[in-house]
Design brief:
Distance between the termini of chain A: 54 Å
Number of strands of chain A: 16
Shape of chain A: globular
Shape of chain B: globular
Oligomer: heterodimer
Strand content of chain A: over 45%
Helix content of chain B: 10-25%
Radius of gyration of chain B: 20 Å
Helix content of chain A: under 10%
Strand content of chain B: over 45%
Chain lengths: 234, 170
């Protein structure tokens, strides 16, 4: 059973950035988030959850992304390739840290964002995280889209026997992007690219605000904020 | 047996119920009574009121959007035909918000609806809820009341199919 690191830790700190691609008011866009978590010199405590706040009015729910659902069980068994193409919503990467003996090892993880089944009327998302070297691990993070924020639950990620849980040091996630969906037209499956996330027509004075609140398994918390500068009208 | 005035009131009410019974769906104008009718001239007088029996469906196409708000327009067919403009808001809550106005030949009717979206990961989730009249113009300047709202939201095209049902005094 993996053990929590017992050493005294400094208070974790976090930084984040966000971007729209393209940057145009009133136009569909791709939204990217990036986080970096620090904890003094060592790896931060394992994450338990992320509350990601996004700007009021941003059209995540109306984006047309995720028009099919992938179940967590099929994702865990067969990976994202087994999920319907129309359930794919984005991609990303993460840098995790794990201690193997006295050595701190970094591992790059690929992320796939998918729509999950909705038991309660809210849009549920699944993040499939796959790391292969030096430790193979495939983990599914669950998330739910709520008004103006995305709540992500991060399960404890084991590494090696008797080693601490894996710590997340960096994460980059893009919602939207170059996705290919399929629709039935006259009995045939026709590919199309979903438009993306609608940017509001007006921009707050200080730009579109984003924030992330991190909670760690050891009870620590950290927050970060950023804003996307006001883009021009399309 | 009973008092003659009571019998008259019963007969008037029975005729009124019979009148409603023979009127089918569609826009109708009927006479409702603010108080039981009476042969006594000092009793409250009958008050004329009209009821619009709305049973309309609109197939609406995307006009523009701003973030989580979509604006659609299109023809409404049914008992109150005309042109419909809808502001549809879906922010991730299971309930969607729709503010719409139907422009008919004799005036317009505006309403606000709240409806619960089923299966949000479907390409075309349906919704069902209630609507409340928020105003009107022309012949329907004093319209009020509540009704039911049904619809389908097409996530690929941002189109809407909306059905509004209600008996609305005006």
């Amino acid at each position: 059973m993996p053990a929590m690191a017992a050493d005294a830790r400094a208070t974790p700190t976090a930084r984040m950035s966000a971007a729209f691609t393209p940057e145009r008011l009133g136009a569909p866009t791709t939204v990217s988030f990036a986080f970096r978590v620090h904890d003094g010199g060592g790896p931060p405590a394992p994450l338990a959850g992320i509350q990601l706040s996004y700007p009021r009015g941003l059209g995540l729910a109306t984006s047309g992304l995720g028009v099919a659902a992938c179940t967590q069980s099929e994702l865990e068994v067969s990976g994202p390739a087994a999920c319907p193409p129309n359930s794919h919503m984005g991609t990303g990467s993460a840098l995790v840290e794990l201690r193997i003996g006295p050595t701190l090892v970094h591992e790059t993880v690929t992320l796939t964002l998918l729509a999950g089944p909705s038991p309660d009327g809210y849009l549920h998302l699944l993040v499939y995280a796959l790391g292969e070297l030096p430790v193979y691990a495939a983990v599914v993070l669950t998330a739910v889209l709520l008004p103006e924020h995305l709540s992500i639950v991060v399960p404890p990620i084991p590494s090696l026997p008797e080693a601490p849980y894996v710590s997340l040091a960096q994460m980059h996630l893009t919602v939207g992007g170059h996705l290919t969906y399929y629709e039935t037209v006259n009995g045939r499956q026709v590919p199309y690219h979903p438009a993306g996330i609608g940017v509001p027509n007006s921009c707050p004075h200080a730009g579109f605000p984003f924030a992330a609140h991190f909670s760690f398994l050891d009870g620590a918390r950290a927050s970060a904020r950023t804003a996307v500068a006001c883009p021009r009208h399309r | 047996m009973g008092h003659p005035r009571t019998r008259l009131a019963r007969r008037v009410r029975t005729q009124y119920v019979a009148l409603l019974g023979v009127v089918g769906l569609g826009a109708l104008t009927t006479v409702a009574f603010g108080a039981p009718a009476s042969a006594d001239s000092s009793a409250p007088r009958a008050r004329a009121a009209r009821v619009l029996d709305v049973h309309d469906e609109g197939k609406l196409h995307y006009i523009r959007s701003s973030g989580e708000q979509i604006i659609d327009e299109g023809h409404a067919t049914g008992s109150f035909p005309g042109w419909v403009k809808v502001r549809f808001l879906y922010n991730g809550e299971p309930n969607v918000d729709a503010r719409f106005t139907i422009y008919g030949s004799r005036g317009s009717i505006s309403a606000r609806g709240t409806a619960r979206l089923s299966s949000p990961t479907s390409p075309s989730p349906s919704f069902h809820g209630s609507m409340t009249i928020t105003g009107g113009s022309g012949r329907y300047a004093h319209i009020h009341g509540r009704g039911e709202l049904y619809g389908v939201y097409y996530r690929r095209s941002y189109a809407l199919t909306v059905q509004a049902i209600g008996k609305l005094p005006y």
